[in-house]
Prior knowledge:
five-stranded mixed β-sheet; N-terminal domain of TfIIb; elongated; alpha+beta
Amino acid sequence: MEKRQLTCINCPLGCQLEVVIDKGEIVSIENYGCQRGIEYAKKEIANPKRTVTSILPVIGGELPMVSVKTRTDIPKDKISECMHCLKDLKVGAPVKIGDVIVKNIGNTGVDIIATKKVDKKND
Length: 123
């Protein structure tokens, strides 16, 4: 049997979960403050995923940067590949909230979208 300590990230409480695993199966979950903690532990053990956020430079924009994120969670082991794909990327203005910046980032099936509006700079 294996014991794993997890910090739940589903709400501000940050419960310190203790998960007991035997032969790849969860035997028990303790120290959760709500049902979301149980669901978080199950997902984290079976298939950990995260939302990736970043900022990218904007060419010709009223603002120099635009915030972006993955439309949905991606597998945790794909985060580095995702960030590598974004590292040299620049976006042309204008940018609207929800614009797809990168389709299928790192072959995850998930798009990178803009989370901020950046108008084109008036010269």
